[in-house]
Each structure stands twice: as C-alpha cells, then as structure tokens.
C-alpha cells in the first residue's frame, strides 16, 4: 500500500511540475529537465549496480558449490582407496587431502 501511495505521490508531483512549467522561463525549464534527467540517470546506475551485485553473488554461490562438489569427490575417492588398502600418505598426495582428513574417514 505504501509503495502505491509513493508512486501516486510521484505522479502527482510530476503532474504539478508539468502544470507549473507553463509559467517557467526557458532557464527554469532547462534546469528542471536537467534535474529530471540526472535523477533518472542516478536510478539507472543504482539498478545496474544492484544487478551486478546480484550476479556476482550468484557466481560466488556457484563457485562455492563447485568447490564443495570437488571436495566431496576427493573424499569419495579417498574412501575407495582406503578400502583397497592404499597407504594414507599416497592417498593424501593423490587427492590433495590432508592426512588428518584421511584419518577421519
């Protein structure tokens, strides 16, 4: 409801300015149009920045997911190698997991 009122308030303000503009000098009209353009440009920049931040967050989330998947795969491989009786040190060298991580398995 509040956003509807805010939008209506913007519309009313713009309509008022348009009506009042008929009495403005050319300089006042140019200043008003310049201020309107600057406000629109600022809103567009803010929206662009928000979109970029959202995309960056999504990409970071995807990368975290990929890393977790690789780690999970390494654990699975290490478990299989342990079950085959392969030396823990060789498993560590092969998978990149620490000896502590392998011993927990």
Give the secondary structure arrangement, pairings included.
Blueprint: H1 2-21, H2 26-83, H3 88-95, H4 99-104
Helix pairs in contact: 2-3
Written description of the protein model:
- The chain is an all-alpha fold.
- The chain has one domain.
- Helix content is 88%, strand content 0%.
- The protein is built from 4 helices and no strands.
- This is Transposase.
- It comes from Candidatus Cyrtobacter comes.
- InterPro entries: RpnA.
Helix content: over 70%
Q: What is the element string, with H for helices and E for strands?
A: HHHH
Uncertain stretches of 5 or more adjacent residues: none
Termini separation: 56 Å
Beta-strand share of residues: under 5%
Based on Cα principal axes, name the global outline. Answer: rod-shaped
What is the averaged pLDDT score?
87
Helix tally? 4
Organism: Candidatus Cyrtobacter comes
InterPro entries: RpnA (IPR010106)
Region (Disordered): 45-71
Protein name: Transposase
Give the tags.
105 residues; mainly alpha; 4 helices
Overview in brief:
The chain has helices spanning 2-21, 26-83, 88-95, 99-104. The chain has 105 residues and is mainly alpha-helical. It comes from Candidatus Cyrtobacter comes.
């Amino acid at each position: 409801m509040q956003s509807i009122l805010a939008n209506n308030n913007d519309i009313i303000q713009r309509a008022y300015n348009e009506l009042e503009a008929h009495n403005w000098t050319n300089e006042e009209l140019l200043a008003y149009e310049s201020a309107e353009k600057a406000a629109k440009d600022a809103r567009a920049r803010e929206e662009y920045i928000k979109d970029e931040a959202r995309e960056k967050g999504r990409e970071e989330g995807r990368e975290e997911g990929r890393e977790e998947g690789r780690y999970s795969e390494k654990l699975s491989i290490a478990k299989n190698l342990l079950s085959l009786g392969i030396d823990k040190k060789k498993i560590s060298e092969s998978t990149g997991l620490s000896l502590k991580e392998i011993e927990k398995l």
